[in-house]
Specification:
InterPro entries: GPCR_Rhodpsn_7TM (IPR017452), Vmron_rcpt_1 (IPR004072). It is found in: Cell membrane. By secondary structure, this protein is mostly helical. It has ten helices and three strands. The protein has a three-stranded antiparallel β-sheet. A hairpin with a 4-residue loop joins strand 2 and strand 3. Helix 1 packs across helix 10.
């Protein structure tokens, strides 16, 4: 195994392992919160769903990609490829949609209560679950073409307009299908990213106005909590947009060539998965509820370890 393959394999392994661990920790923390609290707050529900979408993305894309990099072949047959690629497309789509949903929800939460918002704000929590269902249905419909083009790798020359994922091939058969698929996916992503940027910009404007108003005034606990939550959302959006930009620069390049180099495809996979791997650690560090549950779990396990060590002595 040469140095380039080793570096690539270790990079994917670290990204995949840490990302899966981080998202599972977030989900377990929220599962514990559900057991001790009557119900999750809307923002917590959105963050929990975001962790699930990111975990789904990592399991269906980065795990097989890592195994392929280390030389494992024939991982999936044709039906397996169709299921995995379809699940990956849905997970990736949900990641951008739920991040957008988080940004829009937070913007509406901290916005001044005007004539329209005063009626909408009380029903916002009840709209979270229907919005989840709508996003699932929307993305399942948009991604429905993915299984028809997915197949297990074939021996011989890779046809034109085929994405070689290593563990699977996505054969679009002709330039028209290739471009239409790229435009549909990119159009959806850019629409949601534009919406999240607009709502995040509005959040920043509100935070600036709020900081000007409260200079020299002691802020309430609720005000500090809302400000902290808003900053967390904006940071998550910035994190997503950075990796989204890198991902789409590579994707646009891939649309302009008939045969895509495996190195270019691997670079796109790595950068497009960075958000899914890094966001759970940011959620853990910035969300007091999640952090508290993790600390409590660690402290609960520590006496057991100390008891075992004393018994061994």
């Amino acid at each position: 195994m040469d140095l380039c393959v080793t570096i690539k394999g270790v990079s994917f392994l670290l990204q995949t392992g840490l990302g899966i661990l981080g998202n599972i920790v977030v989900l377990l923390a929220y599962a514990s919160i559900i057991c001790t609290e009557p119900k999750l707050l809307p923002v917590d529900m959105i963050l929990c769903h975001l962790a699930f979408a990111n975990l789904m993305l990592l399991l269906t894309r980065c795990v097989p990609q890592t195994m392929t990099v280390f030389g494992l072949k024939d991982l999936l047959n044709d039906p397996g490829c169709k299921v995995v690629i379809y699940a990956y497309r849905i997970g990736r789509a949900l990641s951008v949609c739920i991040t957008c949903m988080l940004s829009v929800f937070q913007a509406m939460t901290i916005a001044p209560a005007g004539p329209r918002l005063s009626k909408l704000k009380p029903v916002l929590p009840s709209l979270v679950l229907p919005t989840f269902a709508a996003l699932w249905l929307l993305n399942m419909a948009i991604c429905i073409a993915a299984p028809f083009f997915s197949m297990a790798p074939r021996n011989g020359t890779i046809p034109a307009f085929t994405l070689n994922l290593g563990f699977c091939h996505v054969d679009f058969r002709d330039n028209m299908s290739y471009v239409i698929n790229g435009v549909a996916v990119s159009g959806r992503d850019f629409a949601f990213v534009a919406l999240m940027l607009g709502s995040s910009g509005y959040i920043l404007l509100l935070l600036h106005r709020h900081s000007e108003q409260v200079k020299g005034i002691r802020r309430s606990h609720g005000s500090r909590a809302e400000t902290r939550a808003a900053k967390t959302v904006v940071t998550l959006v910035v994190l997503y947009v950075v990796f989204f930009g890198i991902d789409n620069v590579i994707w646009i390049y891939m649309l302009t060539v008939s045969k895509v180099s495996p190195v270019v495809a691997d670079m796109r996979v790595f950068f497009s998965s960075c958000y899914a791997s890094l966001s759970p650690f940011f959620i853990i560090s910035s969300n007091k509820k999640v952090k508290r549950k993790i600390v409590c779990a660690a402290e609960h396990d520590q006496p057991l370890v100390d008891t075992q060590e004393s018994n061994e002595k």
